[in-house]
Amino acid sequence: MIINSITCIGAGYVGGPTMAVIARNCPDIKVTVVDVNEQRIADWNDSNLDNLPVYEPGLKEVVAEARGRNLFFSTDIDAAISEAQMIFISVNTPTKTYGTGKGMAADLKFVELVARKIAEVAASDKIVVEKSTLPVRTAQAIRSILDNTGSGVKFQILSNPEFLAEGTAVNDLQHADRVLIGGDHHTAPGKEAMDALAAIYGRWIPRERILLTNVWSSELSKLTANAFLAQRVSSINAISSLCEQTGADVDEVAAAIGADNRIGPRFLKASVGFGGSCFQKDILNLVYICRSLNLHEVAEYWEQVVKMNDYQKQRFARNIISRLYNTVSGKKIAFLGWAFKKDTNDTRETPAMYVAAALLDDRAEIHIYDPKVSQERIYGDLRNLIAQNQLTIDPAQLPDLVKVCKKPYDACRNAHAIAVLTEWDEFKGYDWQQIYNDMFKPAFIFDGRNILDIEVLKDIGFQTYQIGK
Ligand code: NAD
Ligand code: UGA
Question: Which atom of ligand 2 is least distant from the CA of 344?
Fold first, then answer.
């Protein structure tokens, strides 16, 4: 089966970059990315590539090459479904905020809406690909929607979870460690659909890295991969608090254990905690599935990864308050970084907002600088926390209590303390002497990412704190 027309429903952090990279590598395949969010599509079509809705190193170059040639962004979802042979579902699957499974289960309403839309519009056979991260056995639900249209159209459902990390998405897509394709390999049409998708990736991914499994293994592997990665971060963060009490240095411990090639060196960087749209959501989802299947011990095991992460964020905030003489009321705290990691403008579940909430609760004033995150988004994050009762300030007070600065030196001027929340490279090159000169004394710095040269800062006169030291 030769595929020459692909549609992706959902033009977010996954849909946009993933399809851009497919379009670049397969110039003969028409790739259309559609979304209900008109502004998002307008931003993907913006002639100024600095206005793309997703910031990722290398992304604008890929979009510049393919857009208008074989890559298109559109709001005409029906037309895109009709013409595609293969449809990727790449909509968001957030944690449910209501009803059964509230706060734990994945909310599949967007996925279901898309499945119903495909069922309604499709007039020819389609391969439907789950690109969103989904609970194991979701393909069954999608199948039951698609198989009950009565239209005679035949659907093959594949699972093809995405493993890209934000900040390195283009590189991760271009040089994927593996591509996972789950399908019904016991039937001829199922096998044909899997081969058709494998052939697309095979244009640039070595064949031995394309793994073919059954659908359930593929769905579950995605949740498991994120759970294992997050578990490593929580494990090293757990050890970081022990290091602080014992004189061990967490970076030295990480290097020592990471040198064992059974453990490996990556994902052992102690931090203020992990953020991002997926780790917490996917683990909570895993925990929910385990509980639903009466696997309570398994559920508790994984839930502890999230609890440890919450502890680490709160520990960082409490540390700031206790070192600033047990109160930050009326004190100015400068935040360097708001994104959940460097090289992205994504702020979903960023540890920075939880640290901010704890400090605002203690009546601090926060001045934030982030190279890629807008004031609008920061205020949006904090308003969300207020709406969820995780921050108890009057929304009208937000502009007085939280200022977003265009320059780092403005954020730090007259501050009592600086907190580094994201590991942006540019922070390392600042004129720290000048920053120190402009701060209240004693000038405190809390490096939540262990990226600054702490000896230099101490020599300047800063009171310093690092994670796990
Ligand atoms: P996102 O919120 O950035 O994008 C999702 C898009 O889907 C939004 O633009 C939304 O408007 C659109 N959408 C929702 N319902 C729609 C509908 N009915 N019709 C058309 N469009 C609709 O989300 P994301 O970060 O791209 O994540 C998408 C999925 O990929 C999630 O399941 C996530 O867990 C998974 N994932 C994300 C990452 C990541 O790094 N962000 C990595 C791997 C997997
Ligand atoms: C993560 C996974 O790495 C991807 O494989 C997966 O596809 C994706 O989730 C997803 O499903 O959404 P992402 O969240 O974009 O990617 O970024 P990571 O590099 O994994 O970082 C996640 C968080 O952990 C960040 O806040 C980061 O700062 C933190 N982290 C990571 C640490 O604190 N220490 C580390 O050693 C590594």
Answer: 15
